[in-house]
């Protein structure tokens, strides 16, 4: 007797605008379009996919919400390819993680794996401008020499890592580390009773590690940078736990939180970001 096939849930049929949005993504890939390139005009897309103007506009709006295109109106309007910004990606990640119990330990467990490889991979690609930016970051975050307030110093702790991320040519590794940095900047808070002396010690240790990492990177010593960053991440994880660092509520940010200005040191397609005063190393 033949066995009955196991019951499967029917696949949810995509709406026509969603199907057209997928085809436009395929078109972008086939034509090798890049950020800044224009999509064909609405009338051309309408004729190519044999759908109504309303369907094309709804498909383009869907891609705009995803951050893949920007839409302008008027006689010369239409869709322009855009590079999805990190803050938009973080919002999507938060939707997935909203009901997950993500802890500081979870974040640092991943960070301790990724940051040493990120820093090591950046070493051959660091320019003199990068080194100047790294040294400026150290000067701003070191309590022993900085005139900045304590919270501004902690912001610079994370900016240091973004500068290294921008120099690493591996886009997937860079993305994951920048995403973690953004979470650290925006979502971690510390216990109100943490003594100022503890924050100062944290900042001094961070600055010393950063200084040693820059020195090794200038010498193009990849293995030394990897080892120093691994030690740095282990110390940072211990310090954050000792200072009672925690995730602030659920993983959710509002639009104003995500609209933080970028720092002056900008590499192509990446930047070291400034942050709101709640981040930890």
Give an account of the 3D structure.
The chain has 281 residues and is mainly α. Helices cover 58% and strands 8% of the residues. The longest helix is centred in the last third of the chain and has 23 residues, at 196-218. It is elongated, with a radius of gyration of 23 Å.
Task: Return the structural class.
Answer: mainly alpha
Strand order of the largest sheet: 1-2
Rg, Å, rounded: 23 Å
Q: Give the helix tally.
A: 11
| Number of DSSP E strands | 6
Distance between the termini: 64 Å
Report the average pLDDT across residues: 79
Main sheet record? 2 strands, antiparallel
Poorly predicted regions are 5-12, 250-264, 270-278
Categorize the overall geometry. Answer: elongated
Keywords:
6 strands; two-stranded antiparallel ribbon; 281 residues; single chain; 11 helices; mainly alpha
Summarize the structure.
The protein has 281 residues and is mainly alpha-helical. It is 58% helix and 8% strand.
SSE layout:
Elements: H1 16-30, H2 42-49, H3 53-65, E1 69-72, E2 78-81, H4 86-97, H5 104-122, H6 128-141, H7 150-167, H8 171-187, E3 188-189, H9 196-218, H10 222-242, E4 246-247, H11 255-258, E5 262-267, E6 270-273
Antiparallel strand pairs: 1-2, 3-4, 5-6
Helix pairs in contact: 1-3, 2-3, 4-8, 5-7, 5-8, 5-10, 6-7, 6-9, 7-8, 7-9, 9-10
């Amino acid at each position: 007797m033949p066995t009955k096939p196991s019951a499967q849930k029917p696949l949810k049929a995509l709406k026509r605008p969603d199907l057209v949005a997928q085809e436009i993504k395929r078109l972008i890939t086939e034509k090798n379009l890049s950020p800044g390139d224009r999509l064909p005009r609405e009338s051309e897309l309408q004729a190519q996919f044999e759908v109504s103007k309303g369907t094309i506009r709804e498909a383009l709006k869907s891609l705009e919400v995803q951050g893949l295109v920007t839409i302008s109106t008027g006689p010369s309007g239409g869709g322009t390819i855009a590079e999805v910004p990190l803050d938009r990606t973080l919002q999507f990640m938060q939707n997935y993680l909203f009901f997950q119990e993500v802890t500081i330990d979870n974040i640092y467990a991943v960070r301790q794996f990724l940051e040493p490889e990120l820093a090591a991979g950046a070493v051959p690609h660091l320019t003199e401008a990068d080194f100047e930016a790294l040294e400026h970051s150290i000067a701003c975050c070191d309590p022993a020499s900085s005139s900045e307030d304590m919270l501004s110093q902690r912001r610079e702790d994370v900016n240091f890592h973004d500068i290294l991320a921008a120099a690493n040519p591996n886009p997937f590794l860079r993305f994951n580390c920048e995403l973690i940095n953004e979470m650290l900047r925006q979502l971690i808070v510390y216990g109100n009773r943490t003594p100022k002396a503890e924050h100062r010690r944290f900042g001094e240790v961070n600055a010393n590690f950063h200084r040693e990492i820059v020195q090794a990177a200038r010498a193009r010593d990849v293995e030394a940078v990897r080892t120093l960053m691994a030690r740095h991440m282990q110390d940072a994880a211990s310090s954050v736990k000792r200072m009672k660092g925690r995730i602030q509520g659920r993983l959710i940010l509002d639009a104003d939180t995500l609209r933080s200005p970028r720092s002056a040191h900008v590499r192509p397609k990446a930047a070291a970001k400034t942050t709101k005063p709640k981040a930890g190393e």
